[in-house]
Amino acid sequence: MEEALAPYAAHSDKGRGRRYAETPHASRSQFQRDRDRIIHSTAFRRLEYKTQVFLNHEGDLFRTRLTHSLEVAQIGRSLARNLRLNEDLVEAIALAHDLGHTPFGHVGQDVLNECMKEHGGFEHNLQSLRVVDHLEEQYGAFDGLNLMFETREGILKHCSLNNARLLGDVAQRFIDRTQPSLEAQLTNLADEIAYNSHDIDDGLRSGLITIAQLEEVDFFARLWREVQESFPGLTGRRAVYETLRRLITALADNLIVTSGERILEAAPKSIDDVRQSPPLIRFSDQMRKDATELKRFLYENLYRHYKVNRMRHKASRMVRELYQAFTEEPSLLPPDYRVVPHDATAQARRIADYIAGMTDRYAIREHHRIYSLEEL
Ligand code: MG
Fold it and tell me: What does the alpha-carbon distance between residue 2 and residue 308 come to, in Å, rounded to a whole number?
C-alpha cells in the first residue's frame, strides 16, 4: 500500500522510530500497528462515555468522544487518500487525538488547568500524549503504547514553550517553529470538519439551535437552499442530513484542492521538507472565512447556550471538588495514584491523571461516593 504514497508523505519504513526499539511486524506497517494499539487501549474504550458537547447521559444519539473520533478518522482517511498521504497514520492520530480529554468536555480541562496552575497546568493534548507514552498499561517491557514518533507528533497539536522544553524531541517543533507531517496537519483540519458538521446536527437534535438561526450563517444558508432546490418541500432530518453531507463535502473538496495547490507550489520532496515548509494543508481564504463564521455561530449559540452553560457549571464544580478532596486527603485516592513519599507536584499530576481518566458517569459516581453519605 505504501508504494502509492507521495514522496512527501510519512512512510512507515522511514519513520523516526519508537522510544523503545521493536522489531517491525511481518504483516502490518508501523502506523497500522500504532492504530491497532490505540484501538485496543483502555483510554480508547473510555471515549464512549465521555462528553463531546452534550453530557453522555443526555441522549443516546448525541456524539460522544468516541463517535467524534471515528468521524475524524473517516474524514481524515478520505482526505489522505486523495492527497496520497498515509491513511494509517492519519487514522492513528485521529483515533488518539482526544484520549486525554477529561470527563464533561472542555470545561473539565479548564478546571484542572486552573487547579494545577502551581504544578505545570493541564492541557488535553499533552494528556493524550501522556496516555500513549506513560499511562496505558498494556506491555511487559514498557509503560504506554510505545508509538511511532510521527503518531506522537500528530497527537501533540499544541504545546507551550515551557512544556516543549520538558517534552524533548516530540515537541522540538514548537521551539524551532517548524511544522509536523502533512498527516498531522490534515488530521487537525479533519477534526474541525467533523465537529463543525456534527455539532450542527446535535444542536438541532437537542432543539438548542434552529434552522432559522442557522440560515443567518451564509455558508449553511447556501447549502440549505441548494437542498431545497434539489428536493422541494423536503423537511426534517432528511433535509438536515442532505445539507450536512454537502457541508462536509464542500469543506473536504476545498481542502483537497487548496492543499494540492500549496503542495505543488512548495514542491516538498520528503517529510523533512514538509517540516521546514509553512503549513501546506489548509482551506482557501474564502472557505476559512466561512468555516470561521460557522464556528463563531456554534460558539455563541450552542456552546454558550444557557442550558449548556448550566451543564458546564455543574461539571466544573464537580471536577473542582474532586480535585480538592484528593488534594486535601490523598488517602481517598486508589493506591496506584498516591505518591509516597509525598511530593505536592507529583501528587497533583497523579490526581489529574486519575480525574482525566474518568468517564462522565464515573466522575459523577466518584463525586457522590466522596461527598454523600447516601447510596447512589
Ligand atoms: Mg476532536
Answer: 44
- pLDDT above 90 (res 375): no
CA of 96 to the centre of ligand 1 (A): 9
Cα(188) to centroid(ligand 1), Å: 8
State the Cα–Cα distance between residues 233 and 249, nearest whole angstrom.
23
Q: Residue 94 has which C-alpha cell?
A: 485521529
Per residue in 355-364, pLDDT (tens digit) is 999 999 999 9
Q: Which domain holds residue 318?
A: 308-375
In a domain, 11, yes or no: no
pLDDT tens track for 331-345:
999 999 999 898 999
What spacing in Å lies between the alpha carbon of 217 and ligand 1's midpoint?
A: 23
For residues 345 and 239, membership in a common domain is answered with no
Beta bridge partners of 204: none
Cell of 191: 477534526
| Whole-model pTM over 0.70 | yes
| 20 assigned to some structural domain | no
Ligand 1 center from residue 190 Cα (angstroms): 9
Asked, for residue 13, whether it belongs to a domain, the answer is: no
Ligand 1 centroid to Cα of residue 107, in Å, is: 14
